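Need SOUL heme-binding protein's 3D structure for a figure. Predict it.
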Amino acid sequence: MRLNHSTQLSFIWRIFLTAAASIATLRIGAGLIAWRAANVLEKPTYTVVKRLPLSRGSGEVEIRKYEPYLIAETIVDESSMRRAGSVGFGRCAGYIFGKNTPVGKTEPEKMAMTAPVRSVGQAGEKMAMTSPVRSEGNKKGNTKISFVIGSKYNLQNAPRPIDKSVKVKRVDGHYLAARSFSGPPPSDDRVAEERSKLVQVCEREGIRVKGGKDETYVYGYHDPVVTPNLLRKNEVCVMIDGSGLN
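Structure prediction for SOUL heme-binding protein:
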């Protein structure tokens, strides 16, 4: 029996809606799995020293004291952290996932992922980030991209990178003022806006912001593709002088 044109269109439309619903369900399911997996990753250890209200509007700023940790870092000749991130991510991910020489061993070692994504650059008018990496940029075009290395390693036992552009470094203990929010990796304007809020609160509280002019840290705790934007956690931070805060 042949279907008329209207019936055929209705049948095709039902197939399309069913397929779209199935894809959406799979997408949400994969996103939740990715979100849960990221939430249990090892993170740098820190203590919240204070929680301070914003100067205007709702929300708060966390003042944190971080313990030392290691990073795998590479330098990319690019002032935009979004563009530099794709290059730096590949280098650092290669190190974490096996492009390394373990101390006292011959076989490469696959190391565990950690969180958050760390990006550090000059906010100024604009600044961007990618995930899951840490990047540190300046206006001359050099951007540092890095992954956090798990706490079971130190400078003596961490595997040596095969890629000579990747270096294992120690991040000393430090203090940050941090703002948390959900959504996709923040735009340049969003980062600059959040940094401005942090600086205003620090000035109000008499806390000195350290680092170069407009230096800003951007942290991403979840991947920017699979995890739904509503569940993604981002942070914008500035380095501060922690003397007198304890």
